[in-house]
Amino acid sequence: MIEICPSYIFEGSNDDLFVVKNYHGDRWRVNIVDHTCECMVWQMTGIVCVHAVRVLLPRRVEWVEYCNSYFWVSEYNLAYMSNVKPMKDVKDWPKLDSTKLVKPPPLVRGIGRPKKQRMRAEDENGNGHVQKKRKMTVANVKEKGIMQGHVKVFLHHRNSKQCKE
Asked: With pLDDT > 70 as the criterion, what percentage of the chain qualifies?
């Protein structure tokens, strides 16, 4: 994150409110007292965004201390400092009332045959086999009755002995 900081410039209006700009002209307001930035990354994650780091680096403060205390190792150690009491055996757990059990919703199936799982490629037929491509010959072209346009000219020059038109 620190490597990205030189591409940002900041201006301060007072000791806690700053405007951070990038070279493209984008601007973000950063308040280091309220732990807010207009990019919303600081508020959403609790981790200091690059704009706030750009403001904090020249002040020579640890920007890690501006992160939410949830991410601190000291808070983690504090949470698990006391003994963790063991749970009772499964047999000793309180019995649940069977009338209060939450059951899953009923399975509703759509009407008709289920859709195939796999989408077929363009050159596949219904059985999943790839169709063989035929070579274009005079016989195939005449047989299909598509002897027109550039195909006719191409075949006429190529096989002038076989073309009789």
From this structure: 73
The torsion angles phi and psi of 158, rounded to 5 degrees, stand at -75, -45
Contacts of 47 by beta carbon, 8 Å cutoff, 6+ apart: 41, 67, 68, 71
Spatial distance between the Cα atoms of 57 and 52, rounded to a whole number of angstroms: 9
20-63 pLDDT, tens digit per residue, is 888 888 889 999 889 899 999 998 998 888 888 888 888 888 87
Three-state SS string over 64-106 comes to: HHHCCHHHCHHHHHHHCCCCCCCCCCHHHCCCCCHHHCCCCCC
Cβ-based neighbours of 1, under 8 Å, separated by 6 or more = 50, 53
Percent helix, percent strand, percent coil in the chain, to nearest 5: 30, 10, 55
